[in-house]
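== Folding task for one protein ==

=== Format: two labelled lines per protein ===

==== Paired sequence and structure tokens ====
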Amino acid sequence: MFGITLGQIPLSTQRRVIVPEKKYIVTLTAEEREQLHELVSKGKAAAYKQRHARVLLKADEGPHGEQWTDAEISRALDVHSSTIERLRQRFVEESLEACLQRKEQKNRKAKKFDGAAEARLTAVACSDPPQGRECWTLKLLADEMVALEIVDSVCRETVRKTLKKTS
């Protein structure tokens, strides 16, 4: 159909770049628009939230929206076009709130130590070592945390990182 390409971008026979149709259209309500304007004007929110709010305001296709193209938004706000497309998709499929929050990272393991467990580990490390030992080793501390039933299992490296963080 296209025949001619400029790198990965298909060109028409008149050698113009073919811009794909937008799959997700952002249409903000008056309340949503006001909420985003307030978030941007106060300047107290995290930088990514402000940037996402600006993108949504510019991408708004509603009657009172700015209706900018992705290329214009990308140039003006220094945001990649794929970021704009993902924000559009999250707005349409989820909600405005989802666009203003970071996505939960699903590939993260749950931490072995919470605040209370870290405090117990520090207390054990500062206590007297077991009989016949001069000082605590990481392996001994890991075994002691399991013996005290603070965690079900833990490796010495986790103990090391936790103690390094709290020391």
